[in-house]
Amino acid sequence: MTASATSTARLLIVGPQGSGKGTQGVRIAAAYDIPVVSTGDIFRANIKEGTPLGKQVTAILDAGDLVSDELTGALVRDRLSQPDAASGFLLDGYPRNAAQVSDLDGFLGEQGAALDAVILLDVPREESIARLTLRATEQGRTDDTPEAIAHRLDIYEAQTAPILDAYGARGIVDTIDGVGSLDEITERIFAALALRGLVRTAAV
Ligand code: ADP
């Protein structure tokens, strides 16, 4: 790569709760030198800090429901407009329904941009539940109760999985087997992105 080479990577990672999106997302973002934009993390940080936004969404997160498309969309728009996201980003947790896909298309389209790749971490539901149950004891997330977990997985299957059809029609979905060691899964993702000509800027 020459010194003048510029690369962008506008990526989305999708997968059921417990698929390892968060962990893999951080690794991918480091390798491509792009920020992770995780809507769940943004909401949780606001709840922790007791901001007005946090107060507004606490009960919604605890129930495992989705925050409104308007509120979430405005938040993402604002975050993606910051300078560090100008040459790429990795979205985690957004978009997660059809309306959010069209909001994101609209926003990126205004800049003549589009997603380069959608990484689907494929994990069976039983495996997701097992991992989330473990995480509940380790991290104590208030939405990792059995009821909220089941509800979030139902929403994923009903609303989020179908967005992959839209992205699949654009030829940008890479389905990655999400069962294996963390390093194996990272390598699978890197290999798929390399096949798309997406250039890593940092050695990770
Ligand atoms: P998980 O994938 O384990 O459900 P996330 O951290 O992605 O966890 O999201 C946690 C919660 O934050 C969701 O259950 C929902 O309440 C809210 N949230 C995150 N992203 C979105 C989104 N794109 N639209 C609406 N609500 C969202």
Automatic annotation (TrEMBL):
Task performed by this protein: Catalyzes the reversible transfer of the terminal phosphate group between ATP and AMP. Plays an important role in cellular energy homeostasis and in adenine nucleotide metabolism.
Residues annotated to bind ATP: G18, S19, G20, K21, G22, T23, R135, G180
Quaternary assembly: Monomer.
High-level lineage: Bacteria, Bacillati, Actinomycetota, Actinomycetes, Micrococcales
Broadest EC class assigned to this enzyme: transferase
Recorded domain comment: Consists of three domains, a large central CORE domain and two small peripheral domains, NMPbind and LID, which undergo movements during catalysis. The LID domain closes over the site of phosphoryl transfer upon ATP binding. Assembling and dissambling the active center during each catalytic cycle provides an effective means to prevent ATP hydrolysis.
Stated family: Belongs to the adenylate kinase family.
GO biological process, one term: AMP salvage
Pathway: Purine metabolism; AMP biosynthesis via salvage pathway; AMP from ADP: step 1/1
Annotated catalysed reactions: AMP + ATP = 2 ADP
InterPro entries: Adenylat/UMP-CMP_kin, Adenylat_kinase_CS, P-loop_NTPase
GO cellular component, one term: cytoplasm
SUPFAM superfamilies from the UniProt entry: P-loop containing nucleoside triphosphate hydrolases
NCBIfam families linked to this entry: PRK00279.1-3, PRK14527.1, PRK14532.1
Region (NMP): 38-67
This protein's name: Adenylate kinase
Keywords assigned by UniProt, alphabetized: ATP-binding, Cytoplasm, Kinase, Nucleotide biosynthesis, Nucleotide-binding, Transferase
Residue positions binding AMP: T39, R44, D65, L66, V67, G93, Y94, P95, R96, Q100, R141, R152
Gene Ontology molecular-function annotations: AMP kinase activity; ATP binding
Coiled-coil boundaries: none
Cell compartment(s), UniProt: Cytoplasm
Entry's EC annotation: 2.7.4.3
Originating organism: Microbacterium azadirachtae
PROSITE patterns: ADENYLATE_KINASE
